Amino acid sequence: MARSKDTSKGAGAESSSEPKQKKQRWYHQVWSAYTMTRRSDPAVTWWVLGVFVAVVAVATLVGFLFGGHWISGLIVGVPFGLLGGMFVLTRRAEAAAYQQIEGKPGATRAALGSVRRGGWSFDEEPVAFEARTQDLVFRGVGRAGVLLVAEGPSGRATRLLESEKKRTARVVAGVPITTLECGNGEGQVPLRKLVKTVQKMKPTLTKAEVAEVSKRLRALGGAKLPIPKGIDPTRARPDRKSLRGR
Q1: Which parts of the chain span the membrane according to its record (predicted)?
Q2: Does the pTM exceed 0.90?
């Protein structure tokens, strides 16, 4: 009996000696976001400081003009100044994250992973792929119907996109199919604006219809070709709740 007790104590000691992973604090995440952004956007420091100083100065001036309570204005202005600085940092960090992946194969799919509204789900692999030019078409299904997003120069991407649209329409007849081209050419959607463009699409399907359409498209399949994966903006950019200290 004594021997078994010693064994249990030893096991407990071993388990307790295992290093625990430390939870990353919000200010660590803010610093990581800042250093990542500063590498590609050195002006971010002055933007953040400028917004902070401007907000504090305005709040102090308002307090002084209304009863001479400039100290109260200063106290109120500091947290609002921090909030304004964090807002600017978040926006510029997002822009820096997209800048890092722009032009890389699969950047469109990485950006689409940031879509949070509309019930969208996107295939990990492209549904159409041009091996010679590395033009890609990614497919998503949501409340707005089926979305096909092409990645590549306008001329070539349009042909690949139309071909995939006809193939998809044969399987999901009557379902709205929207096509977009991601790029910097004429008529294309820039990578940094892709998420907002998708989230603005109006819903037309119910959740049950979305599930049925997804089932049919899974049977249709995709290109099944490996592609180099880019940086996911959802990981590269800072979490907004963490930046607010929540």
Answers
A1: 44-64, 70-89
A2: no
